[in-house]
């Protein structure tokens, strides 16, 4: 898997292999090829091969010069030798695109290509000198005060255009390159984050996955993603999900004596164990697949595999299975494919924001195209009419080049209008803004795995958070205990406890917890002891130490190998049990788990003197009332510890768990405190102020959950809220048949604040229910936190999935969008801030960009129509384009976020990018700039007392007049860039300007370059140097922008009824509920085409259905008078039955594609029509209930052949 750390070291598997062949017969007792062929076997075959060749796993271990108990020594030379012999644990990454490739890609831009062609033609023609004499005959076309030197300079314009194109291309390529580099840095950071537990010198240490070598002994536990291939040495109840390699979704049981083969890229779903690493990197199973694909497609494969295992994982989930019920095996593959697509598609597609922007850019581009075409046509017509009609000249062959030069000039003007109109800076701005945010978010403990997650977070309206570790510190301590019929409110002295009971407690805790959980001395003097491993178990071990006992001697006496059977903890059991064999041959089972669950299995309890007495249901209820509920109401987690003695002869049936873990004896019940993180209540308050609802979803007891929620401020006394348990929640959302109904969820979720004792399935159901809900006018955007393997489906389903960096399992990280490196809820609030900031940055940029676009296009267009020449020349336009696209996107997209962002409600998903206030600003500033520029254009020469630049002939020297226009224009943009920093109509546009050095440097830099261009640009930039007075006037007009901005801010937006917002997302009418559920991605056209096939096939199917229905209708006409169950007499009746609602069809017809339901929604109601072509014409026959018979036939309630026909098809 891609989890193998992709380091950038070159790797030549062939060479390593061949060299290895030579030297290891001497070094190690086994060769690379032997190991490779061994890892290809499974189950019994593999065991047989190990026995034949090595005797047993121990033998193989010795040949690899390793030890099953102590692992490898930490000798660097030895590790190096192993890496030489068997390879290193990474897969060489695909080479990044070179800078030249990126340049080539940037050159593919259509507008740039057009410009290049125009420039080349212009260059070519400028070198063509027509014979001098005849030029009189061509009229004053070329006339004017042109001397030799000027004519020579004809090539400059073409060259300058080419030069500026090169500039634009280089800047774009550089941006792409740095983005790619950042992304790779991020990738490698994610990979370095991944560490794995191995045994070296008998100590368990965490090392980066890339450092693992063949011969290492690794500890595997629930939730790991295996980084290498290996052979199981010892395992407890180990179950592996191998779907990423085999596609089989069932969990595979692994044990040292039946099937010991563990493969890289597979997930540990249950249990724990130790394995001997036998193949790493390119030689491991997933490495081999990678090599076959070539790392290039490897990336794809990773996505594909990821998609697949998530689906598999989702499939085992009850509720998800509920959604997939109607799938019969016949088209399982089809669905699998679609699910796979669903799992992959959203991540790589455009995010909501990019969707809106692309749409906007296309609209603006179209408008620009029209404008530029009109400009060219008007210029050409005017020239032709002026020259050949008004002056009545004839077209002479020798004049052709001169005329052509004119046409080329007009064409160039047209193209420049287009270049300025097309906001190619938009995608750039998004990328810069996102990349910048992602880099900064690393400092705020958010490791972003998918760029668009960052911006989606800004729209979040709901956060479903875990409790343990996210809202709380995840530092568990036992503070109360009930044992020997006494309730101790603090930890008792050992003398207060019956010695036998004390012994029992110590053994039950020491043995029945993962041996990887332990308590280490503090790092700093006087600090708290360090908890390593499962925090709940550490809390219990801490309890043993508080009782002045030690758990280590107990574990030494009964090492892990001697544990007879382990039932590891999982979300279904909610308990963990371990069986040990006693010296007399009988067995003892120790169990610990959620108190209300485990007490149900207890039939006796240790009484006051340490003696066993019976524990009846009546006693249990009393205990719940007197002990468990009071503890839970104080926010403590209650855990019951129990044991049971089992006979040694006959040996119990271990696989039958229900009969083993029952009839227990309760030893004690402990209350574990997990204090709320000090910064959480404030963070939650911020969320609520920002219009985000926080919900707590936890596996804990409802009273504990409610107490913690109150401490955090998730629920406030006097509010109207719901706290439910998983069971209760499920009862309320399912109908009589046990199917989940959206209407029922809609009744619950708006008030639900705490969901306790919930399974991962409940979490997924809740998230899906909130996302699919249409109760509120805004579609909810849901963020979810998760750490367990079983949270995968919910993390995938959510708009943004947060995985815990410290406590999270690899599976959860793999399914998430953002990893919280400090597991802290307040980091989520930071993510919201950054997300909103991205959105605002884009809006700022848009506001600035559109003002420039509108003005530049109108100036070029009207100027060209009135004076036959654009006041802004091609090269100048390209410079303006560079300022406003590339630089402005850098300057405005890197504004740091402020706390003020959290004071407003989230923008919705369909909120327009350009609000009314922004529209007001754009139009207001546009008007100011146009007035100034046209004043300068038509009366500028009188004001400044200079020569007019209008109607200048071809190749005439640049005029001061037009230079002033260009200069004023650029300076107005510069000052307007400062205005654009605020988009909500704030007055102080300088607020916080110095906190953004990039902005300041870009504004000053642009100003500097502008001075150079005007004073020394000369012919290429069509600029004449200006004197001091003219410069001051230009500056004065520019500063006027700031003052004018204040005037605009004074006009209340509400009075401007005529303004329209722009840049909305897809309208609600175009959205179907399934498309919403599909994360509402905008699908590319190519993707649409792909999906047409599926839809055609669905249409065919529908036609068969319609024909069958017509036949049915005829059949029912025999019973004309009689009501048959298949037919309903009124359209209302038909619509009233819940089974016939369109959404249900969507779930029952898995062959239709989610994203295209909007095109097909007409097909869904059952329409008994006479012509089976009605489907082609997409007519809604629901509106005319006149069949041959006047009956409404509809899908019957009992399963009919029609549906089964459809599924078998």
Keywords:
1209 residues; alpha+beta; Calcium-transporting ATPase, cytoplasmic transduction domain A; Rossmann fold; Calcium-transporting ATPase, cytoplasmic domain N; nine-stranded mixed beta sheet; eight-stranded mixed beta sheet; 28 strands; elongated; disordered N terminus; disordered C terminus; translocase; calmodulin-binding; phosphoprotein
Average pLDDT works out at 75
| Sheet with most strands | 9 strands, mixed
CATH superfamily of the domain at 838-1061: Calcium-transporting ATPase, transmembrane domain
- Helical segment tally? 43
CATH topology of the domain at 838-1061: Calcium-transporting ATPase, transmembrane domain
Strand content: 5-15%
What is the second-level CATH architecture of the domain at 838-1061? Up-down Bundle
Query: Could you give the count of β-strands?
Result: 28
Gyration radius, in Å? 37 Å
Class of the domain at 838-1061 in CATH?
Mainly Alpha
Approximate shape: elongated
Oligomer: single chain
Class from secondary-structure proportions = alpha+beta
Low-pLDDT segments, ≥5 res: 1-26, 141-151, 295-349, 1066-1090, 1117-1209
């Amino acid at each position: 898997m891609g989890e193998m750390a992709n380091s950038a070291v070159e790797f030549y598997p062939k060479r390593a292999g061949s060299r290895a062949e030579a030297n290891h017969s001497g070094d190690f007792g086994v060769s690379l090829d032997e190991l490779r062929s061994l890892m290809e076997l499974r189950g019994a075959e593999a065991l047989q091969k190990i026995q034949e060749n090595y005797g047993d796993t121990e033998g193989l271990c010795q040949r690899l010069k390793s030890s099953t108990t102590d692992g490898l020594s930490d000798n660097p030379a030895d590790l190096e030798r192993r890496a030489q012999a068997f390879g290193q644990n990474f897969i060489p990454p695909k080479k990044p695109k070179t800078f030249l490739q990126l340049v080539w890609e940037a050159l593919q831009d259509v507008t740039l290509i057009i410009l290049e062609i125009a420039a080349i033609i212009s260059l070519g023609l400028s070198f063509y000198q027509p014979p001098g004499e005849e030029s009189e005959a061509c009229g004053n076309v070329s006339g004017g005060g042109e001397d030799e030197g000027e004519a020579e300079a004809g090539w400059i314009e073409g060259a300058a255009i080419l030069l500026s194109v090169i500039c634009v291309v280089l800047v774009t390529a550089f941006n792409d390159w740095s983005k790619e580099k950042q992304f790779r840095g991020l990738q490698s950071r994610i990979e370095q984050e991944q560490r794995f537990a191995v045994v070296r010198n008998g100590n368990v240490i965490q090392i980066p996955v890339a450092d693992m070598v063949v011969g290492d002994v690794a500890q595997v536990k629930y939730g790991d993603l295996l980084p290498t291939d290996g052979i199981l040495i010892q395992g407890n109840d180990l179950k592996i999900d191998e779907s990423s390699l085999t596609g089989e979704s069932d969990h595979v049981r692994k044990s040292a004596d039946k099937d010991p083969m563990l493969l890289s890229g597979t997930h540990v779903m249950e249990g724990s164990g130790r394995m001997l690493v036998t193949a790493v990197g390119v030689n491991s199973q997933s490495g081999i697949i990678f090599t076959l694909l070539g790392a290039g497609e490897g990336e794809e494969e990773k996505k594909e595999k990821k998609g697949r295992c998530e689906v598999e994982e989702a499939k085992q989930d009850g509720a998800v299975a509920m959604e997939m019920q109607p799938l019969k095996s016949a088209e399982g593959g089809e669905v699998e494919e679609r699910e796979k697509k669903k799992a992959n598609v959203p991540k790589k597609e455009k995010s909501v924001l990019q969707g809106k922007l692309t749409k906007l850019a296309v609209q603006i581009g179209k408008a620009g195209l029209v404008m530029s075409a009109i400009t060219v046509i008007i210029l050409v017509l005017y020239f032709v009419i002026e020259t050949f009609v008004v002056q009545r000249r004839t077209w002479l062959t020798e004049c052709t080049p001169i005329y052509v030069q004119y046409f080329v000039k007009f064409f160039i003007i047209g193209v420049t209008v287009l270049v300025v109109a097309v906001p190619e800076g938009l995608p750039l701005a998004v990328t810069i803004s996102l990349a910048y945010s992602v880099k900064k978010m690393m400092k705020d403990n958010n490791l972003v795995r998918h760029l668009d997650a960052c911006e989606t977070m800004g729209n979040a309206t709901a956060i479903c958070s875990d409790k343990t570790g996210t809202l709380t510190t995840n530092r568990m301590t036992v503070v109360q205990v009930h044992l020997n019929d006494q309730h101790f409110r603090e930890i008792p002295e050992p003398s207060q406890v019956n010695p036998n009971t004390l012994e029992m407690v110590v053994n039950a805790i020491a043995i029945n917890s993962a041996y990887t959980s332990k308590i280490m001395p503090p790092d700093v003097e006087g600090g708290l002891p360090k908890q390593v491993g499962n925090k709940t178990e550490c809390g219990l071990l801490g309890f043993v130490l508080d009782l002045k006992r030690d758990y280590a001697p107990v574990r030494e006496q009964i090492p892990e190998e001697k544990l007879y059977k382990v039932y590891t903890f999982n979300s279904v059991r909610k308990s963990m049990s371990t069986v040990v064999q006693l010296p007399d041959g009988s067995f003892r089972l120790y169990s610990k788990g959620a108190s209300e669950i485990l007490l149900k299995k207890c039939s006796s309890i240790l009484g006051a003197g340490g003696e066993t007495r019976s524990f009846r249901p009546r006693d249990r209820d009393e205990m719940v009332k007197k002990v468990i509920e009071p503890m839970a109401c104080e926010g403590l987690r209650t855990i019951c510890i129990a044991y049971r003695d089992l006979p040694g002869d006959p040996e119990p049936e271990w696989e039958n768990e229900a009969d083993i873990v029952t009839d227990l004896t309760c030893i004690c019940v402990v209350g574990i405190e997990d204090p709320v993180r000090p910064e959480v209540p404030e963070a939650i308050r911020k969320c609520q102020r920002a219009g985000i609802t926080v919900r707590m979803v936890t596996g804990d007891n409802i009273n504990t959950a409610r107490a913690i929620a109150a401490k955090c401020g998730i629920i406030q006394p006097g509010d109207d809220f719901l706290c439910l348990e998983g069971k209760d929640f499920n009862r309320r959302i399912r109908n009589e048949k046990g199917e989940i109904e959206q209407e029922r969820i809609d009744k619950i979720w708006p008030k639900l604040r705490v969901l306790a004792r919930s399974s991962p399935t409940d979490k997924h159901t809740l998230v899906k229910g909130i996302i699919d809900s249409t109760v509120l006018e805004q579609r909810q955007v849901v963020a979810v936190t998760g750490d367990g393997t079983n949270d995968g489906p919910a993390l995938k389903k959510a708009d943004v999935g947060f995985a815990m960096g410290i406590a999270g399992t690899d599976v959860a990280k793999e399914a998430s969008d953002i990893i919280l490196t400090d597991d802290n809820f307040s980091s989520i609030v930071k993510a919201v801030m950054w997300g909103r900031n991205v959105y605002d940055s884009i809006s700022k940029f848009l506001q600035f960009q559109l003002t420039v676009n509108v003005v530049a296009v109108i100036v070029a267009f009207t100027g060209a129509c009135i004076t036959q020449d654009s006041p802004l020349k091609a090269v100048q336009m390209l410079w303006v384009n560079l300022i406003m696209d590339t630089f402005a996107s850098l300057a405005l997209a890197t504004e740091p976020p402020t706390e003020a962002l959290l004071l407003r409600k989230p923008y919705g998903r369909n909120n327009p990018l350009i609000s009314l206030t922004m529209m007001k600003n754009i139009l207001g500033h546009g008007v100011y700039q146009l007035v100034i520029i046209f004043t300068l254009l038509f009366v500028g020469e009188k004001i400044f007392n200079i020569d007019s630049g209008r109607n200048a002939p071809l190749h005439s020297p640049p005029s001061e007049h037009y230079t002033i226009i260009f200069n004023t224009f650029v300076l107005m943009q510069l000052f307007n860039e400062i205005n654009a920093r605020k988009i909500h109509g704030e007055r102080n546009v300088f607020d916080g300007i110095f906190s953004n050095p990039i902005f300041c440097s870009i504004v000053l830099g642009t100003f500097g370059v502008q001075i150079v261009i005007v004073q020394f640009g000369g012919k290429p930039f069509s600029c004449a140097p200006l004197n001091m007075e003219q410069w001051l006037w230009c500056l004065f007009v520019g500063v006027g922008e700031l003052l004018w901005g204040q005037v605009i801010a004074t006009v209340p937006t509400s009075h401007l009824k005529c303004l329209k917002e722009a840049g909305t997302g897809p309208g609600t009418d175009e959205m179907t509920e399934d498309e919403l559920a599909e994360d509402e991605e905008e699908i590319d056209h190519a993707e649409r085409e792909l999906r047409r096939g599926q839809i055609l096939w669905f249409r065919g199917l529908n036609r068969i259905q319609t024909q069958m229905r017509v036949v049915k209708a005829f059949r029912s006409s025999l019973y004309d008078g009689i009501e048959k169950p298949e037919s309903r007499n009124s359209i209302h009746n038909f619509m009233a039955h819940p089974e016939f609602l369109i959404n249900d069809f969507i779930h029952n017809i898995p062959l239709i594609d989610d994203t295209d339901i909007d095109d097909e929604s007409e097909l869904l109601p059952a329409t008994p029509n006479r012509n089976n072509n009605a489907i082609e014409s997409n007519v809604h026959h629901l509106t005319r209930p006149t069949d041959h018979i006047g009956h409404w036939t509809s899908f019957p309630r009992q399963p009919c052949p029609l549906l089964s026909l459809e599924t078998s098809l």
